[in-house]
């Protein structure tokens, strides 16, 4: 959640410089040189003129004309510098920073005079009763805003009552709730704005009074808007709902949501009222340097709020989990780095290095905003039946929403940089000099990259989802398993090929937007491709062989194949080779060019044959019936039923051995683990059934006759018997 703080703090620190900049722009109106004892009519007339919109517009126009003349003269001056332009720019920036600090230091002794002048102007412009009247007006219109908001709350009781009945099981239901809560938040803010700002603007007021009261009303409205956004995203309190946390968009604990909601209120209030106060100081003759010093002081307090939130932020640990030493050290290191980052932003702002300020702020804030957006999107669009986002391929809806929000964030960052660097889009499109062409090409290239990234992630999400669904276990028909295996084989290759195509097209379009002729590049790539083809014939052979293996559907991912000395389960393959995992663990990476003839042991079906030796006094028909019954039991087994195509049956007598009748049996199963499991289960059931029905298994025996009664005779007999068994071994299982 610290990313949310980083974003809010950077918005505040960016807002304060803009306020100081606006104040310095407004300083074109001269302030009175000295205080007067009692000139109410003239001062009032001056203040009325300064608050008049036409006068303010005329002053802004004069300032704009002066800026345009400076901009017109600056290219000629920069061109005269020639090769020393870069060094001259650094020197000018250094001189500007030095002059800026000198002006601030010189303004410190004059702050008392500035505030004394402002006090006299307020005393001369407003009587005590008028100040109380202005305060009463402010309280009145804020109260009207809250009153209209309360009325909207009461009128929307039925709408809010529906929140208790809403289910959040599916993605569609969650998106519906997000839309309803967003509409309700907009209604609350709009009702407060209509009751406060709208009712104030409906009446005519003196220009100075109107500007002061309206400014603070807008500050109240800004705070209300920030709180509404915080409630919408964080859902910090339960209120009248059974479980308000289920409406939370950014995943976190309820304690953390309340913590960050309070920090949002503090930061938003400080920014809004500080902004308005600095703007109102201009009306009372406060000098530009004094206002800048006050703005820096307000920014220092804002820096303290940000650092306090960083160090006191709640832990993001699972319930009943204690933070260990390593986690505490990492948290302290992150808090230290963030504190130094915020302090660096404040120093850059005070130094007047606004370009570097915005670059550093965006370099850290944009990735943080993207990660925060990704967490929120994954939480909202999590699969049905899950409280949190789960690992796995992202859905198309998640990718579209997350990448769309990411594109908006990046475009906003680019637009802000354009504002900081004072880039005129119309001038950029019309001018054809070197710098505008480079900037125009870089902008188009950035748009191409965003579009290519969006398309690639959608394609990747679709393919990964299909591969994940094809890999899920289940009871499927042979044709369905064949289709799934085919998808798991071809879709990863299609994904890699589409990635290459998108990257090449985006690269060509980006280079073309930068002014690079891509026609010669394509021709050169063809020549280089031919040269590489001659020099890497083995690689070309592997790639082409792999293409034909795939076209022939020789094997798929998950199938057990054998080729020469290589055998194993196909785990994956690239354009050049296939990876085989042997049953004992080794992984073989075999180029397609050396694969040769492939024996696929996992395709369609497999015949499992069993040979059993029984004694010569066995009833063959009885044994046939027992084997048939065993086959029916195997077919009825839920674990094996889906894998047995034809049940076990006895084919008959295979051969007459030296000591046994060889009975041959077979069954047809689906290839894979079920094949070997059915074999082991069948042998166990046959053993049990034959023992129960008095059918004996034949095994070789040797009888040795003769010998004397001594121990030497017994030893000789045992040796003869052992030798006889060794001679009979070739006949076992024959």
Helicity level: 55-70%
Beta-strand percentage range: 5-15%
The rounded Rg comes to 41 Å
Count of DSSP strands: 8
Contiguous uncertain segments of 5+ residues: 15-39, 66-85, 730-734
* Overall average residue pLDDT: 76
The geometry reads as elongated
First-residue to last-residue Cα separation: 73 Å
Give me the number of helical elements.
23
- What structural category characterises the helix and strand content? alpha+beta
Largest sheet: 5 strands, antiparallel
Strand sequence of the main sheet, in spatial order? 4-3-2-1-5
Structure description:
- The protein has 734 residues and is of the alpha+beta class.
- Among the domains are: 430-535; 541-600, SH3 type barrels (Roll); 606-692, Alpha-Beta Plaits, CATH 3.30.70.100; 703-734.
- It is built from 23 helices and eight strands.
- The chain has a five-stranded antiparallel beta sheet. A three-stranded antiparallel beta sheet has the order 6-8-7, covered by helices on one side.
- A hairpin with a 3-residue loop joins strand 2 (566-573) and strand 3.
- Helix 1 runs parallel beside helix 10 (254-283) and helix 6 (128-155) packs antiparallel against helix 8.
- The protein is elongated.
- The relative contact order is 0.06.
């Amino acid at each position: 959640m610290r990313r949310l703080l980083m974003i809010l703090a950077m918005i505040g620190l960016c807002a304060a410089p803009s306020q100081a900049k606006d104040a310095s722009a407004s300083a074109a109106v001269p302030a009175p040189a000295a205080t007067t004892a009692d000139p109410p009519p003239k001062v009032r007339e001056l203040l009325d003129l300064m608050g008049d919109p036409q006068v303010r517009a005329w002053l802004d126009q004069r300032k704009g004309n002066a800026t345009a003349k400076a901009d017109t003269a600056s290219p000629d001056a920069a061109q005269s510098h020639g090769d020393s332009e870069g060094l001259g720019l650094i020197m000018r920036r250094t001189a500007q920073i030095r002059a800026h600090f000198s002006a601030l230091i010189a303004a410190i002794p004059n702050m008392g005079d500035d505030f004394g002048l402002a006090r006299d102007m307020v005393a001369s412009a407003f009587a005590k009763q008028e100040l109380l009247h202005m305060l009463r007006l402010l309280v009145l219109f804020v109260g009207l805003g809250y009153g209209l908001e309360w009325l909207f709350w009461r009128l929307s009781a039925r709408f809010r009552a529906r929140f208790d009945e809403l289910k959040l099981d599916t993605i569609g239901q969650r998106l519906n709730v997000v839309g309803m809560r967003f509409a309700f938040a907009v209604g609350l803010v709009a009702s407060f704005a209509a009751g406060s700002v709208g009712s104030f603007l409906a009446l005519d007021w003196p220009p100075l009074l109107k500007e002061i009261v309206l400014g603070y009303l807008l500050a109240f409205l800004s705070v209300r808007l920030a709180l509404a956004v915080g409630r919408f995203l964080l859902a910090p309190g339960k209120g009248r709902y059974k479980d308000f946390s289920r409406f939370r968009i950014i995943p976190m604990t309820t304690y953390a949501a309340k913590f960050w909601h309070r920090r949002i209120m503090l930061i938003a209030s400080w920014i809004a009222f500080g902004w308005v106060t600095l703007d109102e100081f201009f009306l009372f003759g406060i000098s530009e340097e004094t206002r800048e010093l006050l703005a820096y002081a307000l920014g220092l307090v804002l820096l303290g709020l940000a650092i306090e939130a960083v160090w006191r932020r709640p832990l993001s640990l699972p319930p009943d989990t204690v933070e260990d030493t390593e986690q505490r050290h990492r948290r302290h290191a992150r808090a230290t780095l963030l504190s130094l980052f915020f302090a660096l932003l404040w120093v850059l702002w005070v130094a007047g290095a606004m370009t570097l300020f915005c670059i550093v702020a965006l370099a850290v804030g944009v990735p943080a905003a993207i990660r925060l957006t990704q967490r929120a999107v994954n939480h909202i669009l999590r699969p049905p039946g899950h409280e949190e986002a789960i690992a796995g391929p992202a859905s198309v809806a998640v990718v579209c929403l997350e990448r769309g929000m990411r594109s908006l964030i990046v475009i906003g960052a680019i637009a802000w940089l354009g504002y900081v660097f004072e880039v005129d889009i119309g001038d950029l499109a019309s001018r054809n000099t070197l710098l505008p062409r480079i900037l125009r090409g870089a902008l188009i290239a950035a748009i191409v990259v965003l579009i290519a990234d969006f398309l690639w992630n959608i394609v990747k999400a679709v393919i990964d989802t299909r591969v994940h669904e094809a890999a899920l276990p289940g009871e499927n028909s042979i044709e369905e398993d064949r289709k799934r295996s085919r998808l798991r084989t071809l879709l990863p290759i299609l994904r890699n090929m589409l990635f290459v195509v998108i990257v090449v097209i985006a690269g060509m379009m980006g280079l073309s937007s930068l002014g690079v002729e891509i026609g010669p590049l394509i021709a050169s790539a063809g020549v280089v491709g031919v040269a590489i083809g001659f020099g890497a014939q083995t690689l070309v052979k592997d790639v082409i062989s792999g293409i034909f293996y795939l076209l022939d559907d020789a094997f798929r991912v998950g199938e057990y194949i054998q080729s020469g000395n290589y055998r194993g389960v196909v785990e994956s393959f690239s354009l050049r080779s296939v990876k085989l995992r042997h049953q004992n663990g080794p992984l073989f990476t075999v180029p397609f060019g050396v694969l040769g003839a492939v024996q696929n042991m996992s395709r369609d079906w497999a015949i499992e044959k069993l040979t059993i030796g029984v004694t010569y006094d066995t009833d063959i028909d009885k044994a046939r019936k027992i084997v048939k019954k065993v086959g029916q039991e195997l077919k009825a087994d839920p674990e094996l039923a889906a894998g047995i195509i034809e049940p076990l049956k006895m084919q008959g007598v295979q051969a007459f051995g030296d000591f046994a009748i060889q009975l041959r049996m077979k069954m047809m199963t689906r290839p894979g683990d079920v094949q070997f499991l059915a074999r082991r289960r069948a042998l166990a059931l046959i053993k049990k059934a034959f023992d129960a029905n008095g059918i004996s298994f034949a095994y070789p025996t040797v009888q040795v006759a003769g010998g004397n009664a001594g121990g030497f005779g017994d030893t000789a007999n045992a040796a003869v018997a052992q030798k006889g068994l060794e001679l009979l071994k070739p006949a076992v299982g024959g």
